[in-house]
Amino acid sequence: MKEKESSSDKIENELIRSILAGVYSVGSTLPPERKLAKEFSVGRPTIREALQRLGRGGWITGRKGMPAIVNDYWRNGNLTTLVNIVENHHIVTDEFIMYLLELRSSLTPTYIRDAVTFNQPKVVALLANLEQLEDSTESYAAFDWDLQKRCAGLAVNPIFLLILNSFDSIYLDMAKRYFSIKDHRELSFNYYHDLLKAALNGDAMEAERLSTETLAKSLALWKDRKK
Predict the structure, then answer these.
(1) Cα separation of 140 and 130, whole Å?
(2) Which of 3, 71, 85, 145 could form a disulfide linkage to 76, CB 3.0–4.6 angstroms apart?
(3) Architecture of the domain defined by 92-224
(4) pTM score
């Protein structure tokens, strides 16, 4: 049983990678079960199991007696789809990174506000040693992600941290690309400094405003990086 599950997991991931890479485009059909079984050197029940999971994940629409159709996963997907994409981050496009940044821009101001509202001293502690932050790509990427996750954990809604945890593997790679530019590090350092002031004053609304403003600037900088 374990062998079968391992094989179907592998086949599922291979097909997801092929869809993300455009080998199977949206609206096209996957090969028939018989052909997939031959390609992967497994029985058709193993292929069927992998296809059923792809269907539950929003990747494909199965058709009885006919090859499955590849879905527009942005429209037909769900949280499982999102996790699948992140797990295959080595082929994630700039488009997906933009979507992720826009999601972050929507979520972060809320959990920053809540963290200051309900756990002001702990937020202050997270920002208390800013002068020790090394001016390097790796240091900023690690600090920023740690700050995000800890503030999300200090908010009252536990779903914020669950969402952020899903992006562990992709966020640091993306952040290193962003923080490799000195101007980006300077923008973030000024934000951290101003956020510390707001936290010291217990001004949750100012913390939310600062986060909204800085994330909008960060998104604009990311969009402009190739111009």
Answers:
(1) 11
(2) 71
(3) Up-down Bundle (1.20)
(4) 0.77
